[in-house]
Amino acid sequence: MAVKLRLKRMGAKQRPFYRIVAADSRSPRDGRFIEILGTYNPLLKENNVTLDEEKIEKWINNGAEPTDTVKSILSKNGVWARLKGNKKTKSPKKDKPVKNVEKKDTKKTTSTKKAGK
């Protein structure tokens, strides 16, 4: 199951209000979700975002992918940079030593032609 962190639209006409949720990527935008992670109100000038950073960190560490909009909301609030800093980076693969292999002459010196009919 692919999990996405995305926005779920709430509110009345012309008065949008969004919940940041963890949802299966196959479910509809305003449909079923797994867990509420925060809110976003674009109509407010200040304090328009509330986030539960522990839940967000848990979902991202478990492999959930945020949508572009949610990623920008997280980065504007400093959460995304903190999460990227906490992630364990894989160590680069060490180069294996190359063995000295003598090249053999693979060219055939005699040509074989098929006899014509």
Concise structural overview:
By secondary structure, this protein is an alpha+beta fold. Helices cover 22% and strands 26% of the residues.
Descriptive account of the structure:
- The longest helix has 9 residues, at about 55-60.
- This protein has a 5-stranded mixed beta sheet with strand order 4-3-2-1-5.
- The mean pLDDT is about 80.
- It has one domain: 2-Layer Sandwich (S16 Ribosomal Protein, Chain: A), CATH 3.30.1320.10.
- It has helices spanning about 55-60, 70-75, 80-85; strands at about 5-10, 15-25, 35-40, 50, 65.
- Helices cover about 20% and strands about 25% of the residues.
- The chain is built from 3 helices and 5 strands, in the order ββββαβαα.
- With about 120 residues, the protein is α+β, with helices and mostly antiparallel strands.
- Strand 3 (about 35-40) and strand 4 form a beta hairpin.
